[in-house]
Amino acid sequence: GAPTISIFQKPAGVIPPGGSTTICCSCQCDNGYFDLYKGGQRVHTLELRGSRAEFSISNATQKDAGAYSCRYRDGGTGLAHSETVEIQVQEFRLPEPVLSVLPGHDVAAGADVVFRCTIAHPKAGCFLYLEGSVKEVKFIPKDEDCKLSHVHKGNEGRYSCQCFTRNASFEWSAVSKTLDLLVR
């Protein structure tokens, strides 16, 4: 069958005008090419290095916002498509949040873990991101925490959070510093 293609944004989250991000495409493939598509149009081609290719966006503008996907091909034959990752470019108007994890960064499998994203704003909700995921892991309403029950190796990774308010339009914070979760 066709190889499974994955796509994710690194770092995750909304980026500010002038900011940068990387779109990572990966698969269990030996060689070939990745074509990066935006809104159905091919915008870039990269040769596979190892099992992934990285497409960088720097000095971002609204023109960089949109839905991106990867297509893997070997020779002229398109073999598989990824899901879509949505890149958003917005001004940051809220303070940077702080992400913490309880009981700590290093936990035993089966434990319960609580992520807390703290921001100095009375009405902001936050998203929890896990590097390598296409979508945010969880929406965290204001003054609530995100609990992961019975964690396992699949929950391991680099987490961050980003907060927003929704008035007439969305206002965003920067992305928090990352935090690594290790599951033993």
From TrEMBL:
Stored PROSITE patterns: IG_LIKE (PS50835)
Question: Is Disulfide bond one of the keywords?
Answer: yes
Q: Which residues form a coiled coil?
A: none
SUPFAM superfamilies reported in the protein's UniProt record: Immunoglobulin
What biological processes does GO assign it? Answer: immune response-regulating signaling pathway
The organism's place on the tree of life at top rank: Eukaryota
Keyword annotations for this protein?
Disulfide bond, Glycoprotein, Immunoglobulin domain, Repeat
> Which residue intervals define the domain Ig-like in the entry?
3-86
Query: Can the keyword Repeat be found in this entry's annotation?
Result: yes
> Known PANTHER family for this protein?
MHC CLASS I NK CELL RECEPTOR, OSTEOCLAST-ASSOCIATED IMMUNOGLOBULIN-LIKE RECEPTOR
In Swiss-Prot or TrEMBL terms, this protein is called: OSCAR protein
